[in-house]
Design goal:
Helices cover 0% and strands 55% of the residues. The chain is mostly beta strands and 88 residues long. The protein has one domain. The chain is globular and about 40 Å long.
Length: 88
């Protein structure tokens, strides 16, 4: 039996409202029907550009911690210019 951590899929993405700073980094996130939360920490950043042969995907991801302690994954869809959140 392996001691490696098991990978879990991210939750279904939900469109969110993000206030970003002058560098495009998220500062506040508002989930649908909820008050805005401050982004305390950005733990990780990565970009995905994929599936050009079907439907292009171009996203910048950030794993963040909100001011209430929740960990969420945000991504900025560079094609539709909207922000999304996923639990994970």
């Amino acid at each position: 039996m392996s001691n490696a951590p098991r990978l879990r899929p991210l939750g279904q993405p939900r469109r969110v409202t993000v206030s970003a700073d002058e560098h495009g980094e998220p500062v506040h996130v508002r989930m649908p029907g909820k008050p805005a939360r401050r982004v305390e920490t950005i733990n990780e950043r990565w970009r995905i550009d994929d599936e050009w042969w079907r439907q292009p995907i171009s996203r910048e991801y950030r794993a963040v911690v909100l001011d209430d302690g929740r960990n969420i994954t945000l991504y900025h869809d560079l094609l539709d210019r909207c922000w999304y959140a996923q639990r994970g």
